[in-house]
Amino acid sequence: MFKILKYSFFDLTRSSWSYVYFFFYLLLGSVLLFLNNDLSTAIITLMNVIIMIVPLIGTIFGVMYYYNSREFTQLLLAQPVRRSSIFLGQYFGVAISLSLSLILGLGIPFAAYGLFKSSAIWDFSMLLVTGLFLTLIFSALAFNIALSHENKIKGFGYAILLWLFLAVIYDGIFLLSLVYFQDYPLDKFSLAASMFNPIDLSRILILLKLDISALLSYTGAVFKQFFGTPVGTLASLGMLFLWVILPLFRLKRVVGKKDF
Amino acid sequence: MVSIQNLHKQFGALKVLNGLELDIMEKGIIAVLGPNGSGKTTLIKSLLGMVVPDKGEISIAGSNIRKRWNYRQEIDYLPQIANFPGNLKVQELITMIKDLRGKPAREKELIEYFRLQPFLDKKLNKLSGGTQQKVNLVLCFMFDSQLVILDEPTSGLDPVALLQLRNLLQEEKEKGKTILITSHIMNFVEEVADRIVFLLEGKIYFDGTVSEIKSSTGQPDFEHAIAKLLSEDHV
Amino acid sequence: MKKIIPVLLMLFYFTTRAQVVEVCPTCEVSSIQKAIDLADNGDTIKIAKGTYREQEIKIIDKSLHLLGEGYPVIDAQFKGTALTVRAENFSLEGLKIINIGTSHTSDHAAILVSGSKNFRIENNRLENIFFGILVEKSSHGVISRNQISSKAVSQAKSGNGIHMWNCSDLTVSNNIVKSVRDGIYLEFSKNCTITNNLCEGNLRYGLHFMFADNNKYLDNTFDNNGAGVAVMYSKFIEMQRNLFRKNWGPASYGLLLKEINDAELKNNIFEDNTIAISADNTNRINYINNEFRGNGYAVRIRGACYKNVFTANSFIANSFDVSYTGNINENEFSRNYWSEYTGYDLDKDGIGDVPYRPVKLFSYLVNRTPEAIILLRSMFIGLLDFSEKVSPVFTPAELTDDYPQMKKIKW
Fold first, then answer.
1. Which CATH number characterizes residue C174's domain?
2. Record keywords: Transmembrane included (chain A) (predicted)?
3. Could you report the per-residue pLDDT of C150-203, keeping only the tens digit for each?
4. Is the distance from CB of C53 to CB of C77 less than 8 angstroms?
5. Chain A contact for B159, CB < 8 A?
6. pTM for the full model?
7. Which chain C residue lies closest to A193 (C-alpha atoms)?
8. Is the complex ipTM higher than 0.85?
9. Would you say residue C43 lies in a domain?
10. Which of 34-63 (B) contact A at CB < 8 A?
């Protein structure tokens, strides 16, 4: 697997897309920090970027890479390599290259700004950690979708739809059900509903670092007791981890049966 | 060497292999022929484990290949060049495949043989179809395995290269290898094949030597003999 | 004789004035109460370093100056009030008073000042107390540079740091009050000035006004209290240059205004509070040049608020800038800076060309369905807020800042 990972990764480091993303994050980070000159607004804008753009990029890049490397995959399939190694290797190649774009792209301007000496370092590392998780999750989901659809257009369509669902539609349904059932106790429901969507979960994890005060003021005990504690943070991270693992398991299972 | 029993494969409603049985015990060159959609590629992909059969057994060198992958260590496979990653350089591709196999290889000798030195630093998609195919051949033959599977080895090759390929096949055959070929160039098949396996509708329709085909169809010319085989079917 | 009387008076004055009574654990006078009993009007009592286990020390109608050297400790041993004063022209300085017991029936304090005038309480250290400095029915006093702290756990079992009841013309400055119930408390008191104090980690409020008109508090820091400052049922309060930080928790505020009329807030900074300002039933309040940064809610206006005017404030990175219940009621937002403003300024006059709507649909939703807060800053909410911004349906349409500033307001 590591050999495949290595080749996928090197293949991607030569792809101009990796640099496009890298420079995108670099530009974003620099513009936010040096033009805005205000760390708290910069981090909030960054959060919006991370919970929107990172999943989108992960999805598109994952699907694109899968379809673009079909020939490479064909070549590898005839080699004495385990099937799951090929796909997991390619997956991690994509995920790591995207993660590097993210970390370096945002890390360099922040380091230049002197962030590592400031107290915002923890907010920032939470941003990066969730950004990494979202990259891993959405490229895994993208691989799954691409694997199940030979037709590129369909694959892209479903992948974008999945992103749209998790990023926007899910919250819409969530909000509607909250408003509709507002006469019932809803705190446990909203806790569960936010656990099942990686984007919501990441958003809340970051918010706990930034906007904790507003969260606490109204909804009270349940959120505070859950997300505010180390146990809650660990559970949330565990959930994100599951979101990475489960698609990978499916990937492995489907790959074992598929004809190429 | 290769033993296939009762092989079935269906893609959706389309039956591609329908109880195919094939034994290849001998050394030499075996050509797998058949019209489009007769199951040639599916057969080869089944052998390589790229397609998972619905039913039936395949064993190579005496052991069943189901759910295994390391038996491919002992197979040299020439895919169709359409399925080649274009953004790699020739040398990188060779190094990578060597790295994946982890076996000694004789790529220098073959590069020399096909005069590929000037192209080593070029990316694959910058090369002509014929040169790509030569690279493909180098990748295939450099490991010297006992079983060689060639999918359309002649595609894109000019007459000189075709001659080189024929000589190479001859050499390899003399080393005692089993070589499985699919091709649409009947001249080439006629010249190199020791045995013809003709597929139709997922089954073996004819199995024999070139002269046996000619005699059974009563056609002196190989191409006509094949055409006759097909038309008989439609009668 | 006529010439002698003033001379005698002067002589009398000088001799009494010059008298100093010294107290130390090993001296002839080893008890503070005894020294007080011995001393005459105008005397200074020098208390040497050491521990004095005394309580219910009383200074009644004597103008004395208690001066501790090296912070002598008065240990009240959890029995009643340590020091009670009812006098004019007295001062208490350099004392360390500890261990005041809590009580449900009476307000034991480290220092109780009652019916007094013209006094100074300076540089004292009060630790582990119930009430710190309790001042009642007194006027014209200075309470400054004291350090007061306790270990308050529950509101019922703790007292206030500096408590003023029915007082006037007091100055409370440069004190540090930590971990009591209310840091500084004023009830029925007027013309008091609270400046340069630090109130930190107090259980309920850093500073608390009840029925206390015409007071001002300036340049104070309120850090990490249950709520920074609560101003209730009072008029004409001047609030300037204070810093409200990190007052957060389920029911925390930077500043809680309840039934307040005619006040002015100027140059205050509100940072990282759950709700920076909560205004309930407030009229004619001017908010000028304040900075709201990183709060959950910057301003929450509850019902029955009239003529609250927000001018030239900076709202930076708050989750909600304004939360609003009820009608517009002549409340006004004008010429503020809003970090979330996305408009443009084509004529380059520093004022955005498009009005800003500080109330978002989401804050309206959260008011109705509190659990919806969990969707804070999600993309769906962003879209919702955007569409509401384009065509307001739920939020008061006339609540706008028509002159939003493009740059943070400097002052």
1. 2.160.20.10
2. yes
3. 988 888 888 999 999 999 999 999 999 999 999 999 999 999 999 999 999 999
4. yes
5. no
6. 0.78
7. C374
8. no
9. no
10. 45, 48-52
